[in-house]
Amino acid sequence: MPSYVWDGETLPVPVEDIVDSVYGLRVRLVDDLSTAPGAPDTVGTLSGLLLTGPGEIWVNKEEAGRWPGRRRFTIGHELGHWELHRTDKQSLYCRTASIEENNQPAGTPLPAVPIAEEEANSFAAALLMPADFFTGEYERLNGDTTALCARFKCSAKAVGHRINALIPDHSRPVR
Questions:
Q1: 170-173: long-range contacts at Cβ-Cβ below 8 A with a sequence spacing of 24 or more?
Q2: What is the spatial distance between Cα 86 and Cα 46, in angstroms, rounded to a whole number?
Q3: Which residues make beta-bridge pairs with 19?
Q4: What separation in angstroms does the CA of 2 have from each of 7, 21, 23, 27, 81?
Q5: Rounded to whole angstroms, what are the CA distances from 96 to 6, 29, 53, 102?
Q6: In this prediction, what percent of the chain has a pLDDT beyond 90?
Q7: How large is the angle between the packed helices 68-84 and 115-128, nearest 10 degrees?
Q8: Strand stretches in the chain, DSSP E
Q9: Which among 2, 12, 51, 67 could bridge 56 via Cys, Cβ 3.0 to 4.6 Å?
Q10: pLDDT per residue over 71-109, tens digit each?
Q11: Please, what sign has the CA dihedral across residues 104, 165, 114, 56?
């Protein structure tokens, strides 16, 4: 990573600068992602998508406005698809339910998350919350999830998943 994009120390990780300057991808906030070429007919359920041909990441404008941490994660997630799953000019579409498991009605079993979506989620988490930084900040902030969310500019759900993935014994109460 060129130091002019990210110095490797300052938080939060500048995901949009990385996407633009390192990968040459354009991030677009879009009202209706179903207008993307070849998009599935799923009005209102797409969080983000990757258009590999023009090198664009489209992000659901409404979600991005409501949840800035979600915006950052969606961008990191789509960058994960660019790095891990891109083939030729195939576009990739991420439904909200694929990356947000609490979208199901109460009592409904969760659908299996496709492996490509799990991989893109892991990529985004590692990019936005690098393991060494995250574990250090977790200890420094005494597990305060609100402070961790602010520090990494990520959602509580993403921070919670990162805690589960990286903190071996987080059984002590987390604020």
A1: 170/143, 172/143, 173/143
A2: 18
A3: none
A4: 8, 9, 12, 20, 21
A5: 29, 15, 23, 10
A6: 65
A7: 120
A8: 26-30, 46-51, 56-60, 92-95
A9: 51
A10: 999 999 999 999 998 875 555 555 554 444 444 455 656
A11: positive
Q: Find the radius of gyration of the CA atoms of the chain.
A: 16
Q: Residue 22 carries which DSSP code?
A: I
Reported pTM:
0.84
Q: Which residue has the tokens 């200890």?
A: 139
Q: Is 68 helix (H, G, I), strand (E, B) or coil?
A: helix
> Which tokens hold the place of 3?
């130091």
**Cα–Cα distance, 83 to 162 (Å, whole number):** 21
Report the alpha-carbon angle 64-145-147, nearest 5: 80
Q: What whole-number distance in Å separates Cα of residue 163 and Cα of residue 39?
A: 34
Q: Is the pLDDT of residue 175 over 60?
A: no
- Name the residue among 132, 128, 136 with its Cα closest to residue 159: 128
